[in-house]
Amino acid sequence: MLVVEGLTKRFGGLVAVSDVSLTVPEGSITGLIGPNGAGKTTLFTLVSGFQAPSAGRVLFAGEDVTGETPERLALRGIARTFQIVQPFAGLSVLENVAVGAYLRHPGRSEAMAHAEAVAAQVGLTDLGRPASSLTVAGRKRLELARALATGPRLLLLDEVLAGLNPSEIRDIIPVIRAIRESGVTILMIEHVMQAVMSLCEHVHVLANGRLIAAGSPGEVVADPAVVEAYLGPGAAGRLQRGAAHG
């Protein structure tokens, strides 16, 4: 579904992403992990067209889409969420979701009907309330719904679990699985490693803009380079024990 080849992004003398290559198989949930400042979100901005790479290529469904605009990529079927959730505060929850729905449903009634269906899919209720009144967990679901309403084939989730408590994380994991089961391929940036272990078939690890490891979640948490750069021995040990018991 997605192939990234030698992707590099420079900001003056800073190399935020350096010669990164990875693949995301169709129908998968693939993880992208690493320390803060590793270049994960920058990689998302390159894949989703918000910035052009300094070098390298992005292939989506077999076609070279490098440097295409976000709106063009959205029409192709790439949607993303953002780390900092910013709903349209003056609109209702349903109207916020409909913003995404209008991409493929230009009529108001059709867009609203599609928005209602997507809202139900992600567990959003009380759709007439102002989006500004939502909790952090509600805003995360709204961000997910707004992206999903565009009808993506590939969904890029940027820390959709950040800021949630353990019970809220447990509640949203089945929603992410159901999105994949509906036919949407997912690439997710995440720091909640228990969720990564549970959801992802394959994980890529970035540190200092470079890909330092890739493999199954179990392989990655046992990789000495990942332990040193990101997890630390204590967390790695707990995750390995959890995987063994799971």
How would you briefly describe this protein structure?
This is ABC transporter ATP-binding protein. This protein has 246 residues and is α/β, with parallel strands linked by helices.
Care to describe what's here?
The chain has 246 residues and is an alpha/beta fold. It has a single domain (2-84, 154-245), classed as P-loop containing nucleotide triphosphate hydrolases (Rossmann fold, 3-Layer(aba) Sandwich), CATH 3.40.50. The chain is built from ten helices and ten strands. The protein has helices spanning 40-47, 70-76, 93-101, 108-121, 136-148, 166-181, 193-199, 217-221, 224-231, 233-245, and strands spanning 2-11, 14-24, 29-33, 55-60, 63-64, 78-80, 154-158, 185-189, 202-207, 210-215. The longest helix has 16 residues, at 166-181. The protein is globular.
Indicate the topology.
Blueprint: E1 2-11, E2 14-24, E3 29-33, H1 40-47, E4 55-60, E5 63-64, H2 70-76, E6 78-80, H3 93-101, H4 108-121, H5 136-148, E7 154-158, H6 166-181, E8 185-189, H7 193-199, E9 202-207, E10 210-215, H8 217-221, H9 224-231, H10 233-245
Parallel strand pairs: 3-8, 3-9, 6-7, 7-8
Antiparallel strand pairs: 1-2, 1-4, 4-5, 9-10
Helix pairs in contact: 3-4, 3-5, 4-5
Rounded Rg: 18 Å
Please give the count of helices.
10
Percent range of helical residues: 40-55%
Give the amount of beta strand, in percent: 15-25%
Count up the domains.
Answer: 1
CATH class descriptor name: Alpha Beta
CATH topology: Rossmann fold
Q: Could you tell me how far the N terminus lies from the C terminus, measured between alpha carbons in angstroms?
A: 29 Å
CATH superfamily: P-loop containing nucleotide triphosphate hydrolases
- What gross morphology would you assign? globular
Total beta strand runs: 10
